[in-house]
Amino acid sequence: MTTRYRVEYALKTHRRDQLIEWIKGLLAVPFILHSQPTAVFEPRNESVEQMATAAQRRYAEIMRDVEEMVNDHINHQKSGTQDRSKLKLIVPTVANFFTPLALHDAFIWQDQRRCISRRRFVPPSFNDIRLVLNTAQVMSLVRAGPLELVTFDGDVTLYDDGQCLTPDNTAIPRILRLMQGGTKIGIVTAAGYTEARRYYERLYGLLDALHASELPTSIKQNLVVLGGESNFCFKFSGDSPDLLKWVPRKEWLLDEMLLWTEEDITELLDVAEAALRETIRNMRMEAILVRKERAVGIVPARGQKFCRETLEETVLIVQKILEMSPVGRRLPFCAFNGGNDVFVDIGDKSWGVLACQRFFGGIEGGKTLHVGDQFLSAGANDFKARLACTTAWIASPAETVQLLDEIAELEEMQQRKTR
Ligand code: IMP
Ligand code: MG
Fold first, then answer.
1. Which PANTHER family did the record assign (predicted)?
2. Chain segment 105-126, per-residue pLDDT in tens
3. pTM exceeds 0.85, yes or no
4. From the CB of 105, is ligand 1 less than 6 Å away?
5. Most Cβ neighbours (<10 Å): which of 9, 77, 349, 359?
6. Beta strands at 287-291 and 244-246: parallel, antiparallel or unpaired
7. Are residues 393 and 301 in the same domain?
8. Per residue in 64-97, pLDDT tens?
């Protein structure tokens, strides 16, 4: 018999992050014990200051304990026994960590900004914890410094879905600041085009600003675009009309990627195309099928808006069919929900980030940060970047800007300390 638990699990597992859910559960206990909702109508009750202090202390202690469990997991990783760590037993989906996470200090930092401990009715939420994890990650990266490579997703991370990186984008001066400090930049996007012009049209605000900046040429060259997840590479070039120059595959492909044959690529895209066509019929979607050199997808016809459920259904069907096909076991692919379209790309962002690391001379995962918006385990394309480097999960371009400001602030603090 199918239990309710199994139904819930089957339906929701791809829409939950188990590590975040687990931490949320841990923090719910001090919230219940220390929050004072009745203070609203009982004026003589404990002051909000006292409550906030007690709650913060307990939340921070828990974050310290989780931090220790991550350290224990990292020790297991070093001896090849990560499957036996306590954290792995509790959260079976956790993968490898590239650095420790400064969770205690990050909680205090975010609490000062979000007043989590002062809340009496709303417990620590998914978003609170997501942001604490981001801060913990950048704190650890900056403390171990320098941050050598930052890769950014495009849609929703640097600009709104389907839009372009225009000159007024406030991420631009922040990316230039990172470059000035010696950090390399990769734009690792699913948007897959074979011509530099198309990427220029999407990214011109940043490319023009970099071109016009006073930065030395050696630094300006520290920007690459990896398109189609891991299929097309362009580097910044002030001499090119579109400020980007195609990089021949032999200069950036990893050895494993050389094994991807054209026959397999065509076969995988054929299987995906058939599955997408069948889903369009079945779900009565008004969709147009788009077949590209390294991708196949569906986009809405005539300005339609697909509902989330339809998009998710499509992704899960195509993914399942590909996973069960022989070619899907030979060749990495990424099926994802792009907000109002569904695409299947050859390769995925882990390969895209690895290619950037290789292009810049072999940068390590623990010195690389990928910033993206899609980190659920199915139907999301930034998720795979976790195999290649540390990550930050943002929910909007404004959050990316906030994260870059956090990095700048932490770097300044770090420099003051070492001076
Ligand atoms: P990202 O968020 O920067 O990874 O961009 C994802 C979006 O790029 C998708 O939702 C599509 O709208 C668009 N796109 C354009 N061409 C492709 C392609 O070849 N593969 C996947 N997505 C594409
Ligand atoms: Mg995105």
1. IMP-SPECIFIC 5'-NUCLEOTIDASE 1
2. 999 999 999 999 999 999 999 9
3. yes
4. no
5. 349
6. unpaired
7. no
8. 999 999 999 999 999 999 999 999 999 999 999 9
